[in-house]
Amino acid sequence: MDAIDQVVLNSRLHYLGMDARVIEPRMKLAVLTCMDARVDAASLLGLRPGDAHVIRNAGGRATHDAMNAMALSQGILGTREIMVMHHTECALQRFTETQLAERISTATHQPFTELLGCFTDPIEAIRDDVRRLIEYKSLVHRDKIRGFLYDLATNTIAEVKMPLGVPRNPQAGLG
Ligand SMILES: [Zn+2]
């Protein structure tokens, strides 16, 4: 059986109920995290259906696409806080852009020139993504954007504080 057939069967056991009526996330929270299969964002963070947006990509990076999703999340669907959560043992840290591109190219026999967001310092990567979001003017709320590192070995998350000099509330003083 294909994995997709398996998950289609699994879906028959899922009960949604009244949560299906919630459109705007109850906690007014959006989480940006990695697609890594070990990162169970809902379970880890205690999120139930209807609670929060969870946007995932390779690395949990603040890519153009992820930032657009955040603009929609805040501007249309009423979220106010953003949690950026990267994790230890991320593939984007274990490999370089060149290594990943070569492996994809070799497997597909096609050139692959996209940047995937590889990083060497996980703390700096989180700070970069938080900074990009704080500076993104299409977000309604930029005063509660915080970064975290999820340590898979200890199953704990730790906040990554921003260095001094990064405005915590870029809206302060405006209008
Ligand atoms: Zn990852």
Structural description of this entry:
The protein is of the alpha/beta class and 175 residues long. The chain has one domain (23-160): Carbonic anhydrase (Beta-carbonic Anhydrase, Chain A), CATH 3.40.1050.10. Helices cover 31% and strands 18% of the residues. The protein has six helices and five strands, in the order αβαβαβαααββ. It has helices spanning 3-11, 41-45, 64-75, 91-94, 97-108, 122-134; strands at 29-34, 52-57, 81-87, 145-151, 156-160. The chain has a five-stranded mixed sheet with strand order 2-1-3-4-5, with helices on one face. The protein is globular and about 45 Å long. The N and C termini lie far apart (59 Å). The mean pLDDT is 93. The structure holds zinc ion.
Summarize the structure.
The chain contains six helices and five strands.
Strand order of the largest sheet: 2-1-3-4-5
Strand tally: 5
Q: What coarse outline follows from CA principal-axis ratios?
A: globular
Largest β-sheet summary: 5 strands, mixed
Return the structural class. alpha/beta
Give the topology string: H per helix, E per strand: HEHEHEHHHEE
**What is the average of the pLDDT values?**
93
How many whole angstroms does the radius of gyration measure? Answer: 18 Å
| CATH architecture grouping | 3-Layer(aba) Sandwich
The portion of residues assigned to helices is: 25-40%
